[in-house]
Amino acid sequence: MASRSGADPGIKKFRHDVAILKRKGLISKSYDARSVNPTKYLKSQIKQWSEVIEGRATTVKVSKDNEKFYRQNGFDTKMGRVVVPIQPNQKVTATRGNFRLTTVGKSGSISSRNLTIEATSIPEWLEKLRANKVQFADDEVLAFQYFGNSSRQFFSGNGKTRQQQLADFIERYPSMIEAAKKGGDAEAKLIKSIHLYKIKGDPLANRLPSTPFNEKRDTERERLKAARRSQQRSRRIARMTEREYSEYMDAQAAKQKAYRASLSDKKYDEMLKRNAERARKSEAKRRQAARVKALREFSRAEAKAEKEAQAYQSKVAQQFNKQVSKLSDAVRKLGKAGNGNKKKR
């Protein structure tokens, strides 16, 4: 339906979306958003970059080396730009071939920038980290994420550069030492999991920006790990004798008792509240399932009764029709017999 101005609302929205993609640098500047008509390519671009159009992501121009780095670390890139997911309280600013992400929180703002250090082995990565020349202001610290988890350790420089402090700290990680011994994919995976950030503000008052690629990968990995542990536990329990199972349950009960005893009064109360909330939700789900089951059974019984009633009515109607047919035949025969008697007389 056309609007009062005579323009089709669909084409207006399409051209508006094209204008946004053009302004964000995701399509060629040769397109004139005021007169462009829908094409298969432009429709696919609007669908692909819907998050940018809706404001849930933005783009920022970076250098070629940094574009390659961010692409390898799971970010979408196009035409020299990186697509950065943002929250309503976040802003992205270009900084000499890289970008800075600023998050405004209750305790102020925090600005972070990935240092984009590339390497193929852990010793090379540590060497490049120590030699990194990124400058820090007095109120800026260096922080890092490890497999998507934000570290509570921050480096502000004390006799050494912040990069040197971080290198000395992180090379003592057991997983770092183990991966360096294994080499190959283990080293590459670990290096890819580390993200370094330059932070201005109170780092404890605000969380580091999560990397969508790491978050997605780590969530899936943890889910698979949990499923694998559950399967192993089920197999182990299935192989137990009655005595072994009883000992296992006693050990689990002792662990729970020791854990609860180690909690402070506040933590213990929080645990009881969580358990009560879980029980409430579980009971609500059970009742909902029971209601759904009862409704389904009632619907099935009602449908069955209706079907049986229809079958009974059909059977009665057939029997009635048969009786009517027999009576009609009997009346017809009596009529013929009466006519024959009259003729004889």
Describe this structure in words.
With 345 residues, the chain is an alpha+beta fold. Among the domains are: 1-55, no CATH class; 262-320. The protein is 59% helix and 14% strand. The chain is built from 11 helices and 9 strands. The strands form 3 sheets. The protein has a 3-stranded antiparallel beta sheet. β2 (76-78) and β3 (81-85) form a beta hairpin. α1 crosses α2 (40-48) and α5 runs antiparallel to α6.
Order of helices and strands: HHHEHEEEEEHEEHHHEHHH
| Radius of gyration, CA atoms, in whole angstroms | 37 Å
Number of helices: 11
Structural class estimated from helices and strands:
alpha+beta
Output mean pLDDT. Answer: 80
Largest β-sheet summary: 3 strands, antiparallel
- Would you count the extended β strands for me? 9
User: Order of strands across the biggest sheet?
Assistant: 1-3-2
Percent strand equals: 5-15%
How much helical structure, as a percent, in the residues?
55-70%
N-to-C CA distance: 89 Å
Can you tell me the overall shape?
Answer: flat
**Unreliable parts:** 1-5, 209-217
Primary descriptors:
3-stranded antiparallel β-sheet; disordered N terminus; 11 helices; alpha+beta; 345 residues
Topology:
Elements: H1 9-23, H2 40-48, H3 50-54, E1 57-61, H4 64-72, E2 76-78, E3 81-85, E4 90-95, E5 98-105, E6 108-112, H5 122-131, E7 140-146, E8 149-150, H6 162-170, H7 174-182, H8 185-193, E9 194-200, H9 212-238, H10 242-262, H11 265-344
Antiparallel strand pairs: 1-3, 2-3, 4-5, 5-6, 7-8, 7-9
Helix pairs in contact: 1-2, 5-6, 7-8
